[in-house]
Amino acid sequence: MDVHDLSVVLENDLCIGCGACVAADPTLELRLNPTKLIFEPTHAGSARAAAVCPAISVDYTHLQSMRFPGSEQGPFGVVESVMLAQSVDYNRNMKASSGGLIKELLMASLQRDDVDGAIVLGHVAGLDYEPKVIKSVDEVDSLPGSIYHNLPKHRVLQLLHELHGSYVLVAIPCELEGIFNYIYSSAPDLETKIHSTIGLLCGWQYSHHALRAICEFKKIDFDSITDLSYRGGGPVGKLRITTSDGAVRTVNRRVDISYQTAFDRHFNTPRCHFCINHANFLSDIVVGDAWLPSTVGTRTGISLIISRTKNADSLMRDLSQEGRIVMTEVSTAEIEESQTHRIAFGDFSYAYASYLRRLGRFVPDLRGPNIVEHRPVSDLEVEEFHRELETKLRLQRQGAYRVLRRRKVTRELSALLRRYVRWFLVRILRIKSLTGQRQEVPRDQLSEFR
After folding, report:
1. CA–CA separation, 196 vs 280, rounded Å?
2. Cα separation, 60 vs 188, whole angstroms
3. Alpha helices (runs of H) in 197-307, residue ranges in sequence order
4. Strand, helix or coil at 327?
5. pTM across the whole model
6. Which residues are CB-contacts of 161 (< 8 A; sequence separation ≥ 6)?
7. Contacts of 230 (CB under 8 A, 6+ apart)
């Protein structure tokens, strides 16, 4: 399909707020749609905007060849090494509910002579966060953790245009897709300003309906929110909502039925349902939670690290030698096990895109290196998901959040319980290891981890 502007993105609610279109077409702005509660461009814009939009297409083969010239592109993207790692700073790990590696990597990068600063997400006020520049190690620990709700990120490219020097960039996968779509097609000189990228293993982003729903369930005044933390307090972590009266409400992310309702997949921004790039193919170094049976018992969580360049791999080994982290080398099998085959190889996303194409619907053109290993889920599963999605989006946009919670504890309860049973069998009882489906990371290999 020939796409000449962003009409198909607006019609299908596919914007993810990367801001590439704003850089390509200055007549555009990103604004929060009052009904969809996602950020999207103010109008359809021009062909220049459509050409860089990752909700229209991403040529992963081309972008990886530009990012990592001469490197082999396998089903996990370009991989130099895979590690499990953890900062030796206990408080940093507890705050992150993981290994605390992003902040360790930032601090190490900011100490380099060839790095002038880092472009990171900073808290403005309430639910507003925007990209900003930091230049001091002292600023790192005051940064927010991972933010799960949809945000406009056009300021990254604005900063790259304005700044002089070389900067580390922290970003989620679809954000980097838009940034590098724009850079390689419209502003190649900006690449020299990116020293390196620290990417997140992404677990999807959510519309602001998710936040409005959890506030309604917990009787929190949405408009009084002054701060938000999605993690903290050990592995998995808790959602913490701070309001203007100083109260802090804590929500258990694992078992609270209100959280399971407000942050289920149907509250994702719609483009997330087509994402096949959770492993952040375009980032030099990728950091995420190591959801592995061997890491379940840790007190602070462990990070899974994918280094896509020799420099990224060397940085990790330097941090280990300096005693700032503990680490152990593993294999790509841990990427698949941690993220599941379904996510690592796009089993659902590729099938869902194919299903909608058969219906004559527009979907993003996304074919990543993992397509060679994907095992499409059944048409029945995809059809059922699509029906549920259309129903739940309608209820969200009506503000009928309590109806969604009733559905969760009635017709969806059996599916939720099956998920917990599977988690217990795979992560606690290690059933895959017992049945010879995989080899777990040996316990002595993790003896230094907390």
Report:
1. 14
2. 17
3. 208-217, 257-262
4. strand
5. 0.96
6. 23, 187, 190
7. 145, 146, 147, 148, 237, 239, 253
Alpha helix positions (H), 116-232: 155-162, 173-186, 208-217
Contact 287, 173 (CB under 8 A): no
Instruction: Spell out a b/e string for 280-304, using b for 16 or more CB atoms within 10 Å of the CB, else e.
Output: bbbbbbbbbbbbbbbbbebebbbbb
262-265: long-range pairs with CB below 8 Å, 24+: 262/210, 262/211, 262/213, 262/214, 262/217, 262/401, 263/148, 263/206, 263/210, 263/214, 264/408, 265/204
Q: Is residue 1 over pLDDT 70?
A: no
- Please name the residue that has the structure tokens 């230049």: 135
pLDDT digits (tens, 9 = 90+) for 214-273: 999 999 999 999 999 999 888 889 999 999 999 999 999 989 999 999 999 999 999 999
Neighbours of 185 (CB within 10 A): 13
Q: Distance between CA 331 and CA 84 in Å, rounded?
A: 10
| CA 324 – CA 322 distance, rounded (Å) | 6
Q: In this predicted structure, what is the pLDDT of residue 161?
A: 97
The closest of 230, 225, 227 to 262, measured between CA atoms, is: 230
For tokens 């993690």, name the residue: 231
Which tens digit of pLDDT belongs to each residue from 330-363? Answer: 999 999 999 999 999 999 999 999 999 999 999 9
Judge residue 229's burial from the number of C-beta atoms within 10 Å of its C-beta, 0-12 exposed, 13-18 middle, 19 or more buried.
buried
Closest by CA to 60, choosing from 345, 412, 366, is: 366
Give dist(CA 201, CA 336) in Å, integer: 12
Residue 79 · residue 306 · CB < 8 Å: yes
User: Which residues share a beta bridge with 149?
Assistant: 206
- Return the structure tokens found at 288: 């995420």
Is the Cβ–Cβ distance between 179 and 291 less than 8 Å?
A: no
Handedness of CA 66, 192, 182, 34 (dihedral sign): positive
**Nearest-10 crossing angle of helices 401-409, 208-217:** 80
